[in-house]
Amino acid sequence: MKNALTYICSIIISVILVFTVISSVFGVVGKIHVSEERFTSLAVENDVPEKVYSELEKYFSNRSSSTSIPANVYMDAIDTEYLTFIINRNIHNGFAALNSESTENSVIDNPSLNASIEDFFNAYAEETGCEKDDKFNKKLEDTKSSAYNVIIDQCDIYKFNALEKHGVLSKLAFFYSKLDIVLLICVGACFALTILLTLLNSGTKAGGMFWIGISLAIAGIIIIVPCSYFIVSDYFSAFTIKQPQIYTAYTSTLNALNKAMFSTSICIMTIGLCLTIIYRVLACENPDVKPAKVD
């Protein structure tokens, strides 16, 4: 009867361990990859600033017919280094909001851009004889402000500003702030359950190793299956996002998360299989080492 109870308890604890391991993997990978540092590095690795530059060039070229301002007025004063600064600032502000911290001004003053716009307006006024009155100055300032707004919007590759505007970011902040606590609970539960399995099967040499190994192997396989599908089918590439920089930012991040999940689950499954193999070896060497049997 004692062996039967041990067997049933071991199964129940093993099932719980499977789900706590899965939760821990999600938590650890999320903590490492959903971070300001990782997002900024992915942007550079995938040439996002260059894509933003191309989109801005296209935007200002299309707008030149209605504003009569040539695209080079803006683009000659903008480079990828400047765009990288703004991209990083937007990412920083996004994670600051998620952590309920104060954000910084997204507008990074560009003296070259200001001078280029001013030179164009002054040259236009001299050619046409336009008076530099309050209306002229207002139009000049509006043009500068509009240019900065467009640049900031194009550099907001993860759409943090839009998410904050619609109140989504504040809701996500509640869950993001609890990530460390949840991760600590899940990892702590994994250790507690493995110790419990070991103690529960202490009557047999390395008895807990069998249940722990099986749990880790199953948890790894459960994660591997969907991750493999996403990799083989190139699932995230099918997303329909018109702006190349936003498409690249999201797909590269999701692919990085998926690959990290896949690699971690492979390691977990391998550890689990190794534990079960070690257990079987010990069981063959020692007849007393075998899974609990139901009487």
Beta-strand level of the residues, as a percent range? under 5%
Number of helical stretches of at least 4 residues: 12
Low-confidence stretches: none
Mean pLDDT: 90
Please tally the β strands and state the result: 0
Look at the helices and sheets and give the structural class: mainly alpha
- What number of structural domains do the residues give? 2
Q: Major beta sheet, specifics? A: none
What distance lies between the first and last C-alpha atoms, to the nearest angstrom? 6 Å
State the shape: elongated
Helix content: over 70%
Give the SSE order as H and E letters: HHHHHHHHHHHH
Cα gyration radius (Å): 29 Å
Question: What would you say about this model in short?
Answer:
By secondary structure, this protein is an all-alpha fold.
Description of the structure:
Helix 3 runs antiparallel to helix 7 (134-155) and helix 11 runs antiparallel to helix 12. The longest helix is centred in the C-terminal third of the chain and has 42 residues, at 244-285. The N and C termini lie close together (6 Å). The chain has 295 residues and is mainly α. It folds into two domains: 2-35 and 180-283, no CATH class; 37-173, no CATH class. It contains twelve helices and no strands. The model has no long low-confidence stretch (mean pLDDT 90). It has helices at residues 2-33, 36-45, 48-67, 71-75, 80-98, 111-128, 134-155, 160-165, 168-177, 179-200, 207-233, 244-285.
